[in-house]
Amino acid sequence: MPALLYKLLPELAELGASSQVTGTLPLDVLSKGALSVDLRDGLAYDLLLSNTGNGILLTGSVSATGTTECSRCLEPASLELTGEVEGYFITNPRDEELELADDEFALVPANGEVDLAPAVSAAAIFELPQVVLCQPDCRGLCPHCGVNLNVASCDCASLLAADHPFAALGELL
Ligand SMILES: [Zn+2]
Ligand SMILES: [Zn+2]
Q1: I need a surface site. Which of 8, 38, 71, 118 has the fewest CB within 10 A?
Q2: How far apart are alpha carbons 122 and 139 in whole angstroms?
Q3: How far apart are CA 114 and CA 8, in angstroms?
Q4: Is the pLDDT of residue 123 over 70?
């Protein structure tokens, strides 16, 4: 994953200091489980970093457009994503916070620089849907002969109708 390094300290060392960070993370692919989305123009972000006392709060949004396979017919399907970014960088850790640190709750290293890319990409990945369709009423592939029912038809449904002599065969398939 490309890094998005940002120097939090000393620039944002004072309570109430804030900074807006906008740009595009040059990511080509986002994936979750079996779903993989090719991004058209990377992942756009609009972030706000603000010092809240014990740490620096990260909020903002991400957006992207991309293509993937339709979950039903496997043809290309386009997708628009938006997500909310959240993170917290601890500048003055107490002991219990040292043990809790993870991707969204990270310690600021001695050089004051952190990588915002994990929080930005996680916000988009979180919004990836389970199912993507090329069109809302995609008819998918025939489960028996594999024809794309959006562009062609087949006789499988009538052959497998309950009153047909081959119906029992269809159930075996
Ligand atoms: Zn489809
Ligand atoms: Zn068929």
Answers
A1: 38
A2: 32
A3: 7
A4: yes
> What backbone torsions phi and psi does residue 32 show, to the nearest 5 degrees?
-150, 120
Measured over the CA atoms of residue 127, residue 131, residue 133 and residue 137, the dihedral's sign is: negative
8 A C-beta contact, residue 67 and residue 76:
yes
Helix (H) or strand (E) holding 87: strand 76-90
Cβ-in-10-Å burial (0-12, 13-18, 19+) of 77 comes to: buried
What is the distance between the alpha carbons of residues 52 and 13, in angstroms, rounded to a whole number? 10
8 burial level (CB within 10 Å; 0-12, 13-18, 19+): buried
Dump pLDDT digits (tens) for 82-121: 999 999 998 876 666 666 655 557 888 889 999 999 999 9
* Placement of tokens 């779903």 in the chain: 35
Report how far ligand 2's centroid is from the alpha carbon of 159 (Å): 9
| Greatest Cα-to-Cα distance within the chain, rounded to the nearest angstrom | 80
| Of 43, 45, 32, nearest in space to 131 by CA | 32
**Residues 65 and 80: beta-carbon distance below 8 Å:** yes
pLDDT digits (tens, 9 = 90+) for 128-162: 999 999 999 999 999 999 999 999 999 998 877 76
How remote is the CA of residue 168 from the centroid of ligand 1, in Å? 29
Tell me, what amino acid is at 24? T
